[in-house]
Amino acid sequence: MRATIINPFYTSVKSVCFTFCLLVLLAPLNAAELLSTEKRAQALHISSEKIELTITALNDSTFEVSYEADGVKQLPSFALSEEVKQRDLIVTELSQNEKAFTFSAKNISAVINKDSLGVSFYSDGKLLVSEEAGFFAHDTLRGFRFALQDDEKLMGGGQRVLGMDRRGHRMPLYNRAHYGYTTESSQMYYSLPAVMSTNMYAIGFDNSASGFLDIGHTESDVLQFEAVGGRTSYIISSGETYAEIVKNFVDVTGKQPLPPRWALGNYASRFGYKSQKQTLETVEQFRKDDIPLDAVVLDLYWFGPDIKGHMGNLQWDKNTFPQPEKMIKTLKKNGVKTILITEPFILSTSTQWDSAVENDALARSLGGGPRRFDFYFGNTGLVDVFDEAAQDWFWDFYAALDKQGVAGWWGDLGEPEVHPGDSIHHFNGDKVTGDEIHNVYGHQWAKMVYERQTKLTPNERPFIMMRSGFLGTQRYGIIPWTGDVSREWGGLKPQVELSLQMSMFGLAYTHSDLGGFAGGEVFDPELYIRWMQYGVFQPVYRPHAQDNIAPEPVFHDQATKDIVREFVKLRYRLLPYNYSLSFENSLSGLPMMRPTFLHSASSDIENSTSYFWGDAFLVQPITDPGVTNVKMKLPPGVWFNFWNDSRYKNLSDDQETPLEIEVSVSLKELPVLVKAGSFIPMAKDMQSTEAYDPSDLTVHYYHDPSVTQTTYTMYDDDGQSADSIKQANYQTIDFQAMSSDAGLQLDTQVKGSFADAPKSRDITFVVHGVNEIVSEVLVNGSAVKVLDAKAFVKSHQAAYWNEKTQQLRVKARLESRLELLIK
User: Fold this and answer.
1) Low-confidence residues in the chain, pLDDT < 70
2) Residue 351 burial (CB count, 10 A)
3) Which residues are catalytic?
């Protein structure tokens, strides 16, 4: 029997161990099996003749459960953040009776059977889930089994196209590209070894190896995580609503750092721009066509003239990009950032092959040399991103490009797309195979780029777009996308499902290649418009495609261009609302795209037709041609049509049976509703986010008498400083609405500060749903004139009521506090 082992995570509390330890020796009780139990601070350690079990409270609603057995190799946790490993002690309690131990944090308890050491989890006395056979370990297979309840539904598995309820499916846990997918996929670019249940818990399998997630497929009442190797540990979180589960789970796997504000703008992106001249001409066309733009993304032609044979050059092809630094400066002057693609494959035909071999930067073969293999782009080796020396070699190229002015990184093929199982990687002084750490390759690559970029430019936020990673990769600023989707209606259909499934586990910036990427012989303007409309209400607005059909709106017919232009401009007007969603995600872990059941404990989790964008918007993308009427499931409350202010009411509190309504739409509109009681701050039109002016805002408030009180917080900072949240270098603009017989009161208050924050803000309030004659408007207690439309435009502080639209507009100046009373 090995010596008692406490997870290295907890060595930081050794100094307080004698104060907090509770040691209970149980021999001779169950002496043949159970030897001892020891509670140290927030960890319970149990030893038996066969296994060692450690249960650790990570927060008041989350446990880490780790098993160790003789001869079972362990790897460190990839899922848990460094912050959670160092946080203050979580208050826990240990009790026992003849049959079981009960180890409890504030909102979750683990009951451990003394005979079997099987663990069951409870919250407020309600059973969440129990281990069935629990932990198992064999030479080539290890994992866990849990008992599923009959009526339980489960999300999870990451990027799959299977429907929101994944019960009944067996899914490979092996990140792998699925080129040209449409309405079905069981294996894609970014798998997540995790589930979230209608029984109000989430479980994440903290294992990096190739495996399977079986959610009641092989055995209908069993959830099984299995892998060929790796760590034998899982994380379990509970919550009263799905929002609470998300917050508790993301609290321990890590919150997404704020991206630079420009990341929320429009991108010019394709596969790919073949020259400096083409790049500059494309960006200039956006300016000519009055379509905002913030970034241009250069695919693999920046380092080579052809698709094959050049991957791994990692330097500009000076024949086609003769003056890259001049190009980058020119783009920057116009508010456009440069993003470059990089891949972890170094072809044997590339200019860096000899250097990679000499610096021992590649994964090795069993014989000791670089592990070479063939794939689509040529004969290659794979950078060993787990090895510090290999990282040093790889990073030198990034650092040189950063010095030239490159603003962001696009890491592609990072599953890795091809990864021989017998590749040998050096990690933490040990050797691990490709199969053991395949699913964290993208995670480790993102970590490398994030940490080294942060060190190189500590006052700036990294931009890192990658299509593969692991649980918790969001803490390294990853912006994932849904891969090479087919450019057809079937490719558009699953995009909401894919983003929602990822967002519920912390990957809030998951987005799609707008317009579709793969294939397509003839341009379909309706499909393109519908996809671009959807993009306004997803985390990243990036059209991207194979260039046989242009992904950029500037290269399409005038009618298409005119419609898309208005939606791109709407995206920019929504910048203060969208940027506040980014802030909220970084502060709490809540996603930007939200399932309609997020703030409930509903068992109706199968809706991926519509979703919330933040809390204000209900969005339903159109995914079929020729649609003029759309049926929408209306959640409880009063809702406004975003385009014409038509009102819809669902006065029921029943989350399980939402009211179905029918909404008419044209090609120029997307079904978008706004919940009564919502504040939506908007900015003036701009050519790029560099022209964003937070001192001049239009704030829409959607009024209905049924909403008597509501609040909203807008966040503002300089848009680029890395320490905005950590150092509280930001402002909140807190809005509150109170409705009574006396009228509608709107209070606004500014809190906090940051360098160059506006000293005052000119705000135009647009109050929707004002269906009675406005008798008086008071601003900070003083009456203001109610003018006609023409006079209102010229005024600095006044009101205007449009009886036809039932909208009231009020102009006022906000310094620290502003009170409006509308009678």
Assistant:
1) 1-32, 654-656
2) 15
3) 412, 415, 484
